[in-house]
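User: Fold this one for me? It's LutB/LldF family L-lactate oxidation iron-sulfur protein.
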Amino acid sequence: MSGTFLGTPAFPSAARAALSDSQLRRNLAHATGVIRTKRSGVVSEVAEWEELRLAGEAIKNRVLRHLPEYLEQLEASLTAAGATVHWAQDADEANAIVVDIARRHSADEVVKVKSMATQEIDLNTALEQAGIRAWETDLAELIVQLGDDLPSHILVPAIHRNRAEIREIFLREMGRAGRPAPAGVSDEPTDLAEAARAHLREKFLRARVAVSGANFAVAETGTLTVVESEGNGRMCLTLPEVLISVVGIEKILPTYRDLDVMLQLLPRSSTGERMNPYTSTWTGVTPGDGPQEVHVILLDNGRTTVLADPTGRQALRCIRCSACLNVCPVYERTGGHAYGSVYPGPIGAILTPQLRGAAGDGPPNPQADSLPYASSLCGACFEVCPVRIDIPEVLVHLRSRVVDRRRAATRLPSAQDTAMKLASWTFATAGRTKAAERVATAGGRIASAFSRRTPGGRRVLGSVPGPGAGWSAARDIPLPATESFRACWERTDGGRTERPGKDGQP
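Assistant: Here's what I get for LutB/LldF family L-lactate oxidation iron-sulfur protein.
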């Protein structure tokens, strides 16, 4: 995984810092709210939306079941079309291949299409260390790069910035990287986009090497597909002499016809559009048209390890639409930086730990191990996922793996283990259970003296000491009952109250 976020604290600490930034929360609430509304509108237009989701799930599951065969088919199709195929086991291998190709063409710069895979392997840093400058051409990625920032969203990496902040970044930094922004540029989106367009045009026309990812790679034909909203990707894919595409091995579709399903699911789920403004497809090399040297790097980087987990592998169905981020109440309040990965939000909470080898057999990783807990398990992410990834199921699965690994590493029972064993011992006999009920009801009567009333009128406990401190810091703890169910049952003779008859007799 990328070294970009190395040193990021565990999610609870990072989230606590993000929650104190009121401007960040306003930016996130506005942006995710707009995207949610747009998505809801265009999805409601499709009567067979659930059938499309099922079809998308089935296509991706078929790929994962037969991944070795489809990879070999894709390699053969790409080679037959004139492309050169490279295999990269990890980030270091992938970066070394890109650097080597750029050096062989004496390139001191490359232009880049927005790509999660190249962010994942931290390609920009590897190129910079080799003396090669990588220019991001996606508007949001450009904002992040010029601001020396980190991406915080899969679709809109600069979602944490507002227009005024972007204007200041352009005025301050564009001149250092090329054509400066006009001195009088406003914070209107059209003006900011025009400044970015003029800044990037000289880079498009000058660059000899481009780097892209791919949303989909068709095994049947060797066709790669990139969907985008601005046209910068198409400039990178057509103008340079050399094109290098870094593609995760899970991005395969079996047939060209499968694009029909995915190109209906992806734009509606990501940008809330019926179709993407730019959908670029290319198959190898076409003499006299576009790049005359095409390289495709098929990237593993932990994906085969994820594939080996029957529950966790469904994360590899992800088509990077970001719908789960836009509906997640946790992401909306903390933003993407708190997740410490280029994959934030619910999908990042299940993908990052697996790609990093966390929640597995290696040593504990506090940052990655915290991510499966970065969720309320509300299930909204599954409801909007276009390929039906059951993110809550995977989160619970990864939590159990984190607990099992910590137990194996320490060889000591955790506070939770001890509490569960004590509860099991208590409930094993009626006598112990009855005694525990008496203690609890007595505790409830004592605790009522220290309770407080919520705005809704309920009386609850405040924060509690000891093992319950972490729980009570973010939750209202209801008061224990002052009478147990058993005592109530006995007092009322099984729930029946005695009432006198007409003659006064019971």
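One thing worth pointing out: The mean pLDDT is 91.
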